[in-house]
Amino acid sequence: MKRALIALSILMSARYLLWRGLYTLNFQSPLVAILSLLLFAAEMYGFIAIILFFLQTHKDSKVFSIPLIEKELPTVDVFIPTFNEPASVLYKTLVCCKALDYPSEKLRIHVLDDGNRGAIKKLAHSFGLRYISRPDNQHAKAGNLNNALKHSQGELILILDCDHIPICSFLKETVGFFKDSQIGFVQTPHHFYNPDSFQQNLHLPSELAHEQDLFFQVIQPGRQNADAVMFAGSATLLRRSALEAIGGFQTQSVIEDMLTGMVLQAKGYKAVHYNRILIGGLSPENFRSYLIQRGRWTRGAMQMFVRNNPLFYSGLSLQQRLSYFASLLYFFHGWARIVYLIAPLGLLLFGHSTIQADTVTLLSYFLPHYMIGHLTFALLSREFRNPFWSEVYETSSSFALSWEALQALIRPDQLIFRVTPKGVTSQRPQKLSWSLIAPHTVVMSLIIAGLIRSVYHITAVGTLIDAYVVSSIWAISNLFLLGCAVEVTREPLQERSSFRLSRSIPCQLRWAGQTLSGKTLDISETGVSVKLNAPENLPEKLKITLFGDYEETTEVEGEIVRNQWQGLLGNAASIQFTNLSEPLRQSLIRQMFSSPHSWDNITRRWTSSWKALKQIAVAPVRPRWKKRGPILR
User: Fold this and answer.
1) What is the number of structural domains in the chain?
2) Which of 113, 163, 227, 257 is an active site residue?
């Protein structure tokens, strides 16, 4: 069914675009001709992009872990690069790296600090880890990693961003793939335990999948079939000899990971996408940080497009060339989205349509192309992305990333590396970031002016009514997309000092000779919620013991801050930890992150197109009417 839909979608889109190119371009005036040609170019871009998406995702590929006996295990260096991230973010990663289930004589962990910070050096040494710094920051992350290669000897290298916390079985589950001497690297999915800007700022944390899930859960497994798995910069295990064969991590682009992976594959090495979540990380915690991250990716993609274009890179297969080209082409989406936003204004403001056709004929070509393409994308993306939300994501970043892309194309030699801020907190109430939404508000103003003129034209002039109605509907849909883009910049107050993870850990509550069993509902570094099966009168203070599934037991003192009977849901008790020593704090972090089953039960909701439309329609006003109730403490 997928292949039939893909074929039908391509056929209907090709039919539509052929008709568009031959019969509908409008050259009545220079301005309208430019808009008409830009719209057609944007649609051609979308057609090429969706074909490449279909190529990458039409077939899933699964790989399974290859176990090794202990004497076969290779030596591993763990590289944790950091620059200016807070020590509190790095701390949790170090705790769980120390808990990796791997022979200590075959494992060495290195903190690569490009910030030369005394506090980070002290932190690394407190864990008994090696601290590596260098006198300059040449070539940013790639240079940092290459410097560490000179000061280590492990056969394999595990790269973890400083906020990527591994489960204890990470290495045992991945090193077996390297029995095949042609394997250059093994990539695992990035999973983010905090909501992204769209989930958080639009108040849809459980309704939306994370914005990056489409890549790691749909595109990467599909790319396995073409041996075009992308090196994503972290949660990756690489063969040292393969890196040495290509001269180390590539420095010609600020997305050194993607370029390095492509060069490895061009050299003949294979890559594996092991589709099991083995790390938990932090996604950008506000929209400005999100744009910094995407801006760096855009700049790097433009540099690769100009200097290392996969279409002409020697050693790659045709499928590898197309897969990597698809990744670069994606970062041109900002320009296409801007064209879609302003295209209906040709008629609404200036009286000349960018598409010269009668409405019935236009809809007879457009609707099959759009609806079948939408259905096919939704089927391939499954619960990880609804096509309507893709339009929101692109609209939100279109102006910023288009500017970044233009700068990079003009000066591809400028290797500007901006680190994504992590550990960001906000203690201020929600407010709009006007510096981020200025272009959006300008376009919204033009659309509103165009809609007012459209109403006047329909009522006073009465010509081309169907064309004005269609353009007005298009403009109104753009207005909703822009409304979401504006609202996503409104950052909520950070109400908690530490993030709560949903965890079901067997536990016991003990006080005054009494013992009560239960299971945790969620846990953080400062407290825990426990589910009990019956109403219980609990004392103000007690001890709680957590029984991890990897043979670790943690006993902590705590104070009851809430104890509430919830009927069929049982008794929910919230406990705040007290008198936490350093060993207990580390044990709690391991209880939160180190279990081999930490991320086995992630639930994602399938969002239908109708539901997505409703979400987008109310998203610009949702934060105002969706009030949070009081927390009963």
Assistant:
1) 3
2) 257
Within 8 A by CB and 6+ apart from 29, the residues are: 350, 352
Distance CA 124, CA 150 (A): 19
- What is the extent of the structural domain holding 383? 2-58+332-487
For the question of residue 257 being annotated catalytic, the response is yes
Give tens-digit pLDDT for 511-548.
988 999 999 999 999 999 999 877 788 899 999 999 99
Closest CA to 56 of 263, 313, 294, 325: 325
Looking at residue 526, which CATH number applies to its domain?
A: 2.40.10.220
* Residue that terminates a domain, selected from 487, 516, 538: 487
- Tell whether 44 and 76 lie within a shared domain: no
Confidence of residue 507 (pLDDT cuts 50, 70, 90): very high
Q: Is 413 a catalytic residue?
A: no
From residue 458, how far is each of 55, 445, 455 by CA, in Å? 45, 20, 5
Q: Which of 77, 113, 114, 161 is catalytic?
A: 114
Single-letter amino acid, residue 417: F
45-85 per-position pLDDT tens digit: 999 999 999 999 998 778 899 999 989 999 999 999 999 89
Q: What is the CATH number of the domain that holds 257?
A: 3.90.550.10
DSSP string over 452-468: HHHHHIIIII--SHHHH
Task: Quick: pLDDT tens for 246-288.
Answer: 999 999 999 999 999 999 999 999 999 999 999 999 999 889 9
Q: Is residue 605 included in any domain, yes or no?
A: no
